[in-house]
Design brief:
The protein contains 15 helices and no strands. With 279 residues, the chain is mostly helical. It starts with a helix and ends with a helix.
C-alpha cells in the first residue's frame, strides 16, 4: 500500500502542476520501498511497481529512470518462468513486441511469450496472439489461428478480443462474412469502453451493415471513440460534421476533429483538411 500511495502522490504532483523535482523525489521514495519488497522475496509486486513508474511518460526525464530500467532487468532475470503468472508472460510478450522495458523488438520472441500466456487462459494474451497470426508478425499469417485465439479471448469477455473477432466476421477472414455477428461483437466491446470497438460500431450504423442505418447512432459511437483520442473515431466524427450526417453540418467542428486525427497521422483527415482549407 505504501508503494501505491507513493506512486499516487507522483501522479498527484503532475496533476497539480508541481511535478519537476518533487516527482523525481517521489521516485526515490518508491524505490526504497521496492527494494524492501525484493528483500522480502516479493519480486512480482516489485516488478509491477517498477513498470508503473517506467511507463509513466511524466517522469521519463528523471535521472532515476536508468535505475528503474536496471532494476526491471535485474528482477526479470531472477523470476523463473515456472513462477511467472500468465499476465507477466503477456506483458513480457508485449515488451518484445514494442521494444520496451529494456527488451529489443523481437516479434518471434513476443509470440513465444504471448503463446505461453494464451495457453494458460490469459484473455489479453489470447487476443494479442490472434493479432500476431492475423498480421503475420513473428509467425506465419494464418486467419484461422487468429480467429481461434480471438474467439477464446472474446468468450472470456475481453473487449479487445471481442472487437477483433467482430472485425474477422465483418470482413469474412477465417469465417463466413456475417455483419450481424460483427455488430453484436462490436457492441459488446464498445459498451466496455473500447475505443476501436466504439468506432467500428459507429461505422456499422453509418453504413447500415448488420443494423438499420442510423446516422445519429453512428455519431454517438464515433464521439465516444473520438473523445478517448482514437484517431479513426476523430476522423469519422469530423466526416459526420462536414457532411451533416446525424448532426447539424458544422465545418468548424469538422476541422477540429480532423485536426486531432491528422495530428496522429490519419491520412483521410489530412486530405479533408487540405480541401476545407482550400489547399
Amino acid at each position: 500500500m505504501k508503494i501505491i500511495k507513493c506512486i499516487f502522490l507522483l501522479f498527484w504532483a503532475v496533476q497539480a502542476n508541481v511535478f519537476s523535482q518533487s516527482a523525481c523525489d517521489a521516485i526515490d521514495a518508491a524505490l526504497l520501498r521496492i527494494d524492501k519488497l525484493v528483500v522480502d522475496g516479493k519480486l512480482d509486486q516489485a516488478l509491477t511497481a517498477l513498470k508503473k513508474i517506467k511507463n509513466d511518460p511524466d517522469v521519463r526525464n528523471c535521472e532515476q529512470m536508468k535505475v528503474v530500467e536496471y532494476k526491471i532487468k535485474d528482477i526479470e532475470s531472477k523470476i523463473p518462468e515456472s513462477s511467472m503468472t500468465p499476465q507477466q508472460m503477456r506483458d513480457l510478450g508485449a515488451d518484445y513486441y514494442y521494444g520496451t522495458n529494456g527488451k529489443a523488438k523481437d516479434y518471434a520472441e513476443a509470440v513465444k511469450w504471448l503463446r505461453k500466456a494464451a495457453e494458460q487462459g490469459n484473455a489479453s494474451g489470447q487476443s494479442f496472439l490472434g493479432y500476431m497470426y492475423q498480421h503475420g508478425l513473428g509467425v506465419s499469417k494464418d486467419s484461422s489461428e487468429a480467429l481461434k485465439w480471438y474467439r477464446k479471448s472474446a468468450e472470456q469477455g475481453d473487449a479487445s478480443g471481442q472487437c477483433e473477432l467482430g472485425y474477422m466476421y465483418r470482413h469474412g477472414y477465417g469465417v463466413s462474412q456475417d455483419y450481424a455477428e460483427a455488430v453484436k461483437l462490436y457492441r459488446k466491446s464498445a459498451e466496455q469502453g473500447n475505443a476501436t470497438g466504439q468506432n467500428n460500431l459507429g461505422y456499422m450504423y453509418q453504413k447500415g451493415y448488420g443494423v438499420s442505418q442510423d446516422y445519429a447512432e453512428a455519431v454517438k459511437w464515433y464521439r465516444k471513440s473520438a473523445e478517448q483520442g482514437y484517431a479513426s473515431g476523430q476522423s469519422n466524427l469530423g466526416h459526420m460534421y462536414e457532411n451533416g450526417l446525424g448532426v447539424t453540418k458544422n465545418l468548424t467542428e469538422a476541422r477540429k476533429w480532423y485536426e486531432k486525427a491528422a495530428a496522429q497521422g490519419d491520412d483521410y483527415a489530412k486530405g479533408r483538411l487540405k480541401v476545407l482549407n482550400g489547399n
